[in-house]
Amino acid sequence: MKRYIIGVVSLIMIGVVVFPIVLFSAPWPRSARDFLARSAVSETGATNVVASIYLGYRLYDTLGETMVLLAALVGSVYLMTDHGKKKEHFPGAAHGSFSLPTTGENIHKQYKRVQRTEVLSLTVGKLSPVVLLFGWYVMFFGHQSPGGGFQGGVVVASGITFLLMGRRLPQEMGVLFQNTVPVQRIEVGALLAILLLIGSGLLRGQGFFSNPFVGVEMPMPVTYIVLFNIAIGIKVGAGLAILMILMLRGTVRDT
Amino acid sequence: MTVILLVAILGLSIYALICKDLLYGTIALSVVSVLTALLLYILHAPDVAITEAAVGAGVSTVIFVWVIRKTQRRDET
Amino acid sequence: MILEQLLLGMLFLAGFGGLIFCKNLIKKVFALSIMNSAVILLFMVEGDRIGKRAPLVLDSQEILLLQEMVDPLPQALMLTAVVVGLCVTAFALVLVYRLHREYGTLNIDIIYERIRDASH
So what's the architecture of C2-49+70-118 in CATH? Predict the structure, then answer.
């Protein structure tokens, strides 16, 4: 009973703080919009003004976001995989190996489980190249239409999820993405590309996070944004794909 | 139009917090994400709409369904 | 305008109430996700007030039409907020999975009892 009273009192206190914040009626400032309407397209070359903000003026925030995604993925992968430690568990806990059995006598049980969802795996497996192609397109065109690195990366990760769900026969189970090391290498390569792109402004005598193509005619200044979109997209897609592989397959090898 | 979508989002999220079967709550949360993406498109924000749709109705729902599969499906409290 | 703001405030408080009063761990993660959606929608609703076009230039239009675009700065910030919300949800769910593996239940009261009994 005392806990409910404390809970209700804290809810009322948060409500008293939240409602004046939410209900404010002061006019929203227009100076940011006016400045960006004047000079976003000419300074960065991107016709998508939101892309020119988070990949042009505020590139440091994008680096922070990439680091947060990396930290969350590393922490989740570490906590999900078994490290060989066995401790005493309470009854009812999900203990032991949490992957689907892929060899031995349990493969028929697995095959039966797969057969029940034949329609789902058939459609999803045939749709997966379309989704991957769409994700690639969204990644590439972030500077001109709504889209960009993060959006394209998440759609590519969904496409890889479709690939993983579309396996039907027991023979296909062990082939695709058996361990996550190639995908990890792709992610590390993309992170290296991001760091090199950030430091490439130093070659022109400008600081970090600056566009080295500004003022040059032949590779247009928007090339920087396109390369950045591709690098971020590959990194996010590969990172989330590692999570999806570990969740939909379990850890077959210790990665 | 925005008010109708906001009322639907509020109702579905309260259902997600009250339901007894956690899988129903996950599907309600996924519908909340899709309705949020639609509302963001109406509010002239296409970038955020694509991100919210891909993240909420895609990756986030997959992770929820995985955890529910590995633990329990019913809410016994 | 006021009605939308009120509804968003109620959505945030519903999420917060779910965080306090629900005893199931997965429902607490539901509540975190709902609060995230509420804050994102609040910023977008406020940013939509000052314009009437999306912040995008199509090929055949002049750039001058950007004068009446919606504020693009909150949109860039909310992109980051959506991705960080996904990270928090994913990590919280992996922690819930590990708690269930250790203690066998998803009820926070029973987990608290078992921790207290195991440490005595």
Answer: Orthogonal Bundle (1.10)
